[in-house]
Design a protein that fits this description.
With about 280 residues, this protein is an alpha/beta fold. It has a single domain, classed as Rossmann fold, CATH 3.40.50.1820. It contains twelve helices and seven strands. Strand 4, helix 3 and strand 5 form a beta-alpha-beta unit. The radius of gyration is 18 Å and the shape is globular.
């Protein structure tokens, strides 16, 4: 018998890079691109080497027909880090980007990472466990299984229409029309069928065990950021994450501070100040 092996297709991720010094590597959320971090790229590159990536299927990265699972995206991130020989990285992820970081930790630990930044992501996006009361708030679940699959079906068949309906889930009421239009145009770079497939995988994960029992063992500094507007996830979820990681720093943007799901877009000055202080 001849042994055989199978290796899933790797992709060369597109990235925006600026500056020098300590590496700050930023991973966008579902359907978002490196350009969502433009204010961090411009505002922090005076002291850091800021790199923002387009994940598989997103933005200007390749769009193969397979691999739209959080575990594969974490492997793509690992390959990106190794290819560029990045070390002592301050690694941040927004929304689904935080889930990619949690999968990275599950597969590779904290190798090459010095600090972690988790930006407005619930430990468990879909309530498939019958959670209620404070346990539901702590998990941060935004969907029921039925709503998840209905949303994914809508994205697969009418992506632009569904994205229009997500304005209130992403931003505060004061966001400009230009910013909403830019966000949508970047999201539409990802084919709807792939975006739907990835959404289901992302929102079916439950990271509570990893957050509570594995991340504390790494002994790495952790920053957790949330928004008081609760546009998608309740602040309870960010508070729960921080409470399970000894020494974790928690930052909640108030409503007046643009505390939406995209607080780093709505209030980049405050967000960048927090990162400067945390990264050092």
């Amino acid at each position: 018998m001849v042994a055989s092996s199978f290796s899933q297709t790797s992709v060369k991720l597109n990235a925006i890079e600026k500056g020098s010094g300590t590496t700050l590597l930023l991973v966008p959320g579902w359907s978002q691109t490196a350009k969502s971090y433009q204010a961090q790229i411009d505002g922090l590159s005076d002291r850091y080497r800021v790199i923002a990536v387009d994940m598989r299927g997103h933005g200007d990265s390749p769009k193969p027909a397979s691999g739209y699972r959080i575990a594969r995206l974490a492997q793509d991130l690992r390959e990106f880090i190794l290819e560029r020989d990045l070390n002592e990285i301050a690694l941040g992820g927004h929304s689904m980007g935080a889930s990619i970081l949690w999968s990275y930790i599950e597969q590779f630990g904290a190798d090459r990472i010095s600090k972690f930044i988790f930006i407005d992501q619930a430990p468990s996006v879909t309530n498939g466990f019958g959670l209620a009361g404070q346990a539901l708030k702590d998990a941060g679940a935004a969907f029921t299984p039925d709503v998840l699959y209905a949303t994914a079906g809508g994205i697969a068949s009418a992506q632009a229409t569904v994205l229009d309906g997500l304005k209130g889930a992403f931003f505060s009421p004061s966001i400009s029309d230009d910013m909403v239009a830019f966000n949508k145009s970047e999201a539409l770079k990802m084919p709807g069928a792939y975006a739907a497939r990835l959404l289901v995988d992302h929102c079916s994960q439950d990271w509570r065990d990893l957050i509570e029992h594995e991340i504390p063992k790494l002994g790495k500094p952790v920053l957790v950021v949330g928004g008081a507007l609760n546009t998608i996830f309740p602040t309870d979820a960010a508070q729960w994450i921080a409470s399970k990681i000894l020494g974790a720093r928690l930052e909640i943007f108030s409503a007046e501070e643009g505390g939406s799901h995209f607080m780093f877009v709505e209030n980049p000055e405050k967000f960048n100040d927090i990162l400067r202080d945390f990264v050092g």
